[in-house]
Write a structure and sequence with these properties.
Elements: H1 7-10, E1 12-16, H2 32-37, H3 39-43, E2 47-52, E3 56-57, E4 69-73, H4 80-92, E5 96-102, H5 111-116, E6 130-131, E7 143-144, E8 152-155, E9 160-163, H6 178-193, E10 198-202, E11 225-226, H7 237-249, E12 255-258, H8 268-271, E13 280-281, E14 291-294, E15 297-300, H9 305-321, E16 326-327, H10 348-361, E17 365-369, H11 390-401, H12 406-416, H13 453-457, H14 463-476, H15 479-482, E18 484-487, E19 495-502, E20 505-512, E21 518-519, E22 528-532, E23 541-542, E24 547-552
Parallel strand pairs: 1-2, 1-17, 2-5, 5-10, 7-11, 10-12, 12-13, 16-17
Antiparallel strand pairs: 3-4, 6-9, 8-9, 14-15, 18-19, 19-20, 20-24, 21-23, 22-24
Helix pairs in contact: 6-7, 10-14, 11-12
Bound molecules: 1-deoxynojirimycin (NOJ).
Length: 553
């Protein structure tokens, strides 16, 4: 395999949820200055790209994914001066800032929408997706939005419905309008000119809508049909995205990662690489093996390690030859991985190290989600009123309406709520985990006295210092970055073993996903142990949740 890797393939990306990162103003929510303060911390983890979830001015119905003004920083985070400083300071630490482009929808408070809704003939009248009611006055179709309920909202002013793939307060933009597309490219170029290093592009596979709106087959008790399958990756979407690439990306030193639910491996050639539209795509298959989404309500489902491994191997094998994926096991929309892939009583430190090992040694760019590097875990709050996430609140409502008891509905929320990942970052054992001197916008996880950065800095065997060792290994062994992937035991439901091959180097990674000791004798003579999640590896045995990296000579 040739070593012609781009910077974004070799680096580590860190996803920051600014609202929960670090507050420097005692206001209860994180600030840009808080991020600036922690750049040396991020540098110490080997981070070269820092993805900020949206920080634009926003009413925060969906915590920033409802953008009011793409050209302003939300005052809660600070100012454009802070942002310029973050970009400049980031560069000094070798960290490029990655902005989240939310281009499928805006907030209903965005000036564009306010103008669009005033009439059917104003200059921005076709910047959003408007449609007349059915003859009986009901919504144009029976589509269910991703957050639940009808995907259409009546606008009295214009006497038409508008489409919202997500919340009512997030009207969908109409990419068919050339003026709208130009306005979006101007936004992106404004940020390129500011010196950002790239974009994560939100919900982008939904931007092209069908030319005729027709009902889908109802798939739930509410009589609605999930819009996800009906308005996703429609024919013609690539024309828009190729135009975006030409107008925004070509010839610039930036990289793009598309959030493209539903783009399968066989479509990759159109979506990434020199002839594709993005540099990498967020891969979905492996992220939720243990739940299925049902009428906007998440139900646990049985899953086996072999299922997860097959999903991972499938995408790894594809990018052995072509294209590139981020590697991620957490983000701001998913529960914490230590509670996600393991049984309830599993050791949190060992499992955090196991997932960290996978994250940093599979082929692809590791995306660390804030707090993952210290092993942060889920919360189980006693009442739905403790939760903030719009999607959890909708899911809870759906569950209650479908006859679940409060207790069962809450159990589902505990397991799947996006707030699990959004609790404030745990910096220290101080009040509010050192996150804020004010009242945190979302409660701090009560385990902060045992899980926090300060404590882990001083413990050589902590999850945090284990992540640093993983980063050192990536720097020391090009095989872990450029090497091809080869799985050796996809059928096994207890362990995951795979190798990376590069020139004459072979590195094998062995992970015990069980809480039991297992016999493992397949370590060739002369192999060198590069890292073990225990103080020592015991020959012939894998200890519970042990992660082992060996170099085979
Ligand atoms: C995907 C984002 O990751 C999620 O947090 C958001 O709610 C939706 N897109 C809508 O923008």
């Amino acid at each position: 395999m040739k070593n012609e890797m781009k910077w974004w393939q070799k680096t580590i990306l860190y996803e920051c949820y600014p609202k929960s990162f670090l507050d420097t103003r005692a206001q209860g929510t994180g600030t840009l200055r808080g991020i600036i303060e922690k750049l040396p911390y991020l540098e110490s983890l080997g981070v070269g790209a820092l993805w900020l979830t949206p920080i634009y001015k926003s009413p925060m119905v969906d915590n920033g994914y409802d953008v009011e003004d793409y050209y302003q920083i939300d005052p809660v985070y600070g100012s454009m001066i802070d942002m310029d400083e973050l970009i400049a300071e980031g560069k000094k630490h070798g960290i490029r800032i990655v902005m989240d482009l939310v281009f499928n929808h805006t907030s209903d408070q965005c000036a564009w929408f306010k103008e669009s809704k005033t009439s059917r003939d104003n200059p921005k009248s076709n910047w959003y997706v408007w449609a007349d009611p059915k003859e009986d006055g009901s919504a144009p179709t029976n589509w269910r939005s991703i957050f639940g309920g009808s995907a259409w909202k009546w606008c009295e002013e214009r006497k038409q419905y508008y489409l919202h793939t997500f919340a009512e307060a997030q009207p969908d933009l109409n990419w068919e309008s050339p003026e709208l597309r130009k306005a979006l490219y101007d936004v992106a170029n404004f940020w390129v000119d500011k010196g950002v290093g790239g974009f994560r592009i939100d919900a982008i596979s939904y931007i092209k809508k069908p030319s005729v709106f027709t009902d889908g087959e109802p798939d739930g008790q509410d009589g609605l049909a999930a819009l996800n399958g009906l308005v996703n990756n429609m024919d013609g979407i690539l024309d828009f995205l190729n135009e975006f690439k030409k107008e925004v990306c070509e010839g610039k030193d930036i990289f793009t990662v598309g959030e493209t639910n539903g783009i399968s491996h066989d479509m990759l050639k159109d979506w990434v690489g020199d002839d594709g539209v993005f540099d990498m795509l967020i891969e979905y298959t492996h992220i939720s093996p243990e739940f299925k989404q049902n009428e906007n309500w998440c139900e646990p489902q049985e899953w086996k390690l072999s299922d997860l491994k097959k999903m991972l191997s499938a995408s790894q094998n594809v990018i052995n030859d072509f294209g590139w994926y981020p590697i991620y096991f957490e983000n701001h929309d998913k529960p914490r991985c230590v509670d996600h892939y393991f049984e309830e009583n599993a050791d949190k430190v060992l499992t955090a190290k196991l997932i960290g090992t996978m994250l940093m040694t599979l082929r692809g760019t590791p995306f660390i989600y804030q707090g993952q590097e210290i092993g942060m875990s889920n919360v189980s709050w006693p009442d739905i009123s403790c939760y903030n996430d719009i999607s959890s609140l909708e899911q809870y409502k759906t569950a209650i309406n479908s006859g679940y008891s409060k207790e069962d509905a809450l159990k589902g929320i505990h397991r799947f709520s996006r707030d699990n990942a959004r609790t404030p970052m745990q910096w220290s054992s101080d009040r509010n985990a050192g996150f804020t001197d004010g009242e945190p916008w979302l409660s701090v996880n009560e385990n902060y006295l045992t899980i926090n950065v300060d404590k882990e800095e001083n413990d050589p065997s902590s999850v945090l210092n284990y992540y640093r060792k993983l980063n050192q290994l990536r720097n020391e062994y090009p095989c872990l970055i450029s090497g091809s992937y080869k799985s050796s035991n996809d059928e096994d439901d207890q362990t995951y073993a795979y190798e990376r091959h590069y020139e004459d180097q072979i590195i094998r990674i062995i992970l015990n996903f069980t809480g039991q000791e297992l016999v493992y004798e397949d370590i060739p003579e002369g192999s060198k142990i590069l890292l073990c999640s225990y103080p020592d590896h015991h020959k012939g045995i894998l200890q519970p949740y042990e992660a082992l990296i060996i170099k085979i000579d």
